[in-house]
Amino acid sequence: MITAAQTPLYEIKANLFKALAHPARIRVLELLSAAPDYSAPVSYLLAETGLEASHLSQHLATLRRHGVVSSSRSANAVTYRLAHPKIAELLAIARTFLLDSLADSNEQLKLAQGLPSEHLSASDS
Q1: Host H or E run for residue 12
Q2: CA-based diameter of the chain, in Å?
Q3: For 35-50, what is each residue's pLDDT tens digit?
Q4: What is the DSSP string of 21-61?
Q5: Helix (H, G, I), strand (E, B) or coil at 62
């Protein structure tokens, strides 16, 4: 049996990306990335995401379980914070990658649309 300390780094990374693999969790992380000190109260996250409290709680629990966010309580208010500032950088890199990919795809589409119709096969349309 493999202990947690023996788990290969690629498996740990895969689990991290699984934790990020939901649009609501990415939205929460983007909100925290843009917030002062990378932190925000649950009430703010609820208002900005439009999620039901139970759904937001489940997503936050997943992020917390994978060490992506941490939480603190003060009276009745719970505040979430990015566990590491590099998470904001990871999101920014992903955004840049996706925007570059979309720009490339858009350029390819424009080039294809400029071809004479006899160059397009039935499978292309």
Answers
A1: helix 9-20
A2: 70
A3: 999 999 999 999 999 9
A4: -SHHHHHHHHHHHHSGGGEEEHHHHHHHH---HHHHHHHHH
A5: helix
Give the model confidence (pLDDT) of 65-102 as tens digits: 999 999 999 999 999 999 999 999 999 999 999 988 88
Region at 2 (left for phi over 0; alpha for psi -120 to 50; beta for the rest): beta
pTM, 2 dp? 0.79
d(CA 97, CA 104): 11
Q: How far is CA 71 from CA 25, 52, 96, 101, 108, in A?
A: 15, 19, 28, 34, 45
Q: Is residue 67 within 8 Å of residue 83, measured between CB atoms? A: yes
Q: Which residue carries 């990378």 as its tokens? A: 38
The answer to whether 69 and 59 have CB atoms below 8 angstroms apart is no
